[in-house]
């Protein structure tokens, strides 16, 4: 019974001939003459590309907005973990305002970098194959986001890194970081701790990408689960095959 249920779910995702061939292998006979036409390969791919493009662009737009990271607790960049000791010491020294400003500018740098994300996503989406499309449609609730991660991760990092460096300069992040790090490193002469030398460029780049994918994943889940999030007829047709 479980296998039979799976075949009926797949009916809306692959061609009738292919479905019948698979069903025959398991000894299941399907009458498709009175059933609704299956989705074509082109419809599936076009629908997925449309959904991915919408999710990617909206995710990038949301992430790059003022406060996109800073005001979103799900993706907000905290003080770098390997520099937490600097934060703790700074708080002890009464430098609360400097710590707060540093964390704010850290997130502003991530927001600036995300402005370059949309074209990279769109390029990966354009190159999606038929096999990729069906795997995504039949995959779990974040299959499309996973596809983007696998196909854009390196490109995003390479594109984000120089943008992060520019953003760090624009928001004067190092102006808030260097005094904290310098004061902490001076104290290590007395405490015997190792000096800290956090790579802010790498940290902001990786966290910006992680936050961006989180937003894209949220949009993907909405489209898969909520019919009201399917803004076009094609999205409604393709993703209605996933409805219970």
Spatial shape: elongated
| Number of DSSP strand runs | 0
User: What integer value in Å does the Rg equal?
Assistant: 24 Å
| Euclidean distance between termini CA atoms | 17 Å
Number of domains: 2
What is the overall pLDDT average? 76
The poorly predicted ranges are 1-36
Please report which band the strand proportion falls in: under 5%, 5-15%, 15-25%, 25-35%, 35-45% or over 45%: under 5%
Multimeric state of these chains?
single chain
Biggest β-sheet strands, sense, barrel: none
From N to C, what is the helix and strand string?
HHHHHHHHHHH
- The helix tally amounts to 11
**What is the helix content?**
55-70%
Structural class: mainly alpha
Describe the 3D structure.
The chain is mainly α. It folds into two domains: 1-38, no CATH class; 41-242, no CATH class. The chain contains eleven helices and no strands. It has helices spanning 2-10, 16-25, 41-64, 84-92, 96-113, 117-126, 130-137, 143-170, 173-191, 200-225, 233-239. Helix 3 packs across helix 10 and helix 6 runs antiparallel to helix 8 (143-170). The longest helix is centred in the middle third of the chain and has 28 residues, at 143-170. Mean pLDDT is 76; it is low at 1-36.
